[in-house]
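Entry 12.
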Amino acid sequence: SSSGTNKTTFAAQAQSADIAYVLPASQGSANSVLTNDGSGNLSWGTGGVLFAKKSSDQSISATATDDANFTFSLAANKTYEIRGILKVYTSSTSGAIRCQFVAPTGTTQFVTSFANRSAQDDVVYCTSANTYYDLSPSNSMSNTSDVMMIEGTITTGSTAGTYKITWQCNSGKTGTVYTGSYMKITLVQ
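Predicted 3D structure (tokens):
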């Protein structure tokens, strides 16, 4: 009720021994969930699945630009699976799209990018966080829209933080990441 006279209680199921849970010292952020470390220590986390879909087209150029939608908060000492399907365009048949997966300090990753094009397909292994990769190393993205698939694992170190994508095209080229492109990050360990 609005007067604050009601209360909420938790009731335990039948159990063979006492269980102690230690609550976090502060309120979590919006959409955070309580997670358990297996010893009863509860902390605020990001939950199991993080999902983002582009709500509008995003132009990219030779200037590095953070993606407007693909930014995720990751907990420390966790492993995540990343998957995404992106519809992309470059202004020239000799264009290449570059990408950097910006991650918290100590993060390791094994992420692959598969660019499906009419002339040639490219597979790129993006094994280091915070490093730019040419997602079409043959520099032969078509000047029509192509599909890129991103898949792999991300393992955070002892530092939680933001995981995001930064885009860039080759010098003098422009491109677009289209509405409806999406990324999903799932906590697996």
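Annotation: The chain has a mean pLDDT of 85. The first strand starts at residue 33 and ends at 36.
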